[in-house]
Prior knowledge:
Layout: E1 5-8, H1 10-24, E2 27-31, H2 33-38, H3 41-49, E3 57-60, H4 63-72, E4 79-84, E5 97-100, H5 103-111, E6 118-125, E7 133-134, H6 138-146, E8 151-157, H7 169-187, E9 194-196, H8 200-205, E10 213-214, E11 239-244, E12 247-251, E13 256-257, E14 263-264, E15 269-274, E16 291-294, E17 297-302, E18 310-313, E19 323-327
The structure holds pyridoxal-5'-phosphate.
Amino acid sequence: MNSTIAEINIKNLVYNYNSIRRKTKSKVMAVVKADAYGHGMIECVKVLELQKNSPEYYGVALLQEAIELRSSRVTIKPILCFAPIDFNEFKYYKNIIPTITSEDQIEKLLKVKLNFKLKIHININTGMNRLGINFISAIENIKKLSKIKNIIIDGIYTHFATSDEKNKKFAQLQLSRFTKIVEELKNQKINFGLAHAANSGAVLDMPNSYFDMVRPGISLYGYYPSLETSESIKLKPVMSVKSKISHIMEIDKGETVGYGRLFKANHNTRIGTLPIGYADGLSRALSTKLRVIIGNSIAKQLGRISMDRISIEIPKSTKLHQDVILLGRKGN
Ligand SMILES: Cc1ncc(COP(=O)(O)O)c(C=O)c1O
């Protein structure tokens, strides 16, 4: 058996989720795209669904992810797919919410004969310039959509480009563009469902962006989105990566280790090998820079990271099969 594991601490996932909930006091769309940022989408949703105040929505990037989550039956909550609506896959939108991201899609929707009530969210581009209907023409486009038979506008949203930066000038500009649209829709009594904008950076540092719902991703899994945000919510990392020493050898001064002979020993060196490499997602770019926890000390990784192995310099006391922490903590 492979002794390398990613351990998911569900207590910490619940802790982060509840902390976000407590601070924002709004509805939560838990962003579980990319397999819940690598933490296992189905398992994470199962855990979140067990909470008293479970998320009102789930957010994913791709239709495939939404289909997987829906067909797992772990939740009956709405699932929003951030990807542009796909007119070839309409059948799935009976119980998955697509995003309208362009005026072209609105023109197409005007021509589709809808035989069911289609719930949509509208992405409004306020400056991210990745997806979305331009904020300047948003009102007229939302009006157009609101008049299409069998279309229900369940939400409108925008996405911040810089909410995780210390300087919030651009994020505040995006926010003011979005806020104006929300207010104008209210004034004109156009139903737009839920307004939402806040990703993790905004959840931490922009309380004026919470609207009806927040959309945290990375913070759920215990990480601050950058080193520049505040730590206004205490977060606990959810994942640890652990392995065991699978082989020990001694090399003499002057010998080298691994592909490309990147590491050359300047003294007799004891080497432990771990069964993890870039096939497991351990970036090759970390070669020679990686440090691991072994016993009560930090050990250096030596040479180039291989596809399924790395070598580390170990002290005399290290034993075969001893535990090693690659991501995580031990004491302090
Ligand atoms: C549309 C959208 N909303 C919310 C998020 C969550 O962002 P974060 O992980 O920074 O909280 C993402 C992820 O990038 C996203 O694409």
